[in-house]
Amino acid sequence: MTELRPALFLASVALAVPFAWLPIVAAQGPGTTVRDRLEQSTSVTRADADRFDDGVAAYDTGNFKKAFEIWLPLAQRDDLAAMRNVATLLRQGKGVARDSERALYFYERSGRAGLVSSQVNSAFMYLDGDGIAQDYRKASFWFHAAAVAGVPVARYNLGVMYERGLGVEEDPARALAWYTLAARSGHAGALDRLAVLVPHLPGPTPPTEADATLEARAPAPPLAELDRLDDAANP
Question: What is the pTM of this model?
Answer without folding.
Answer: 0.70
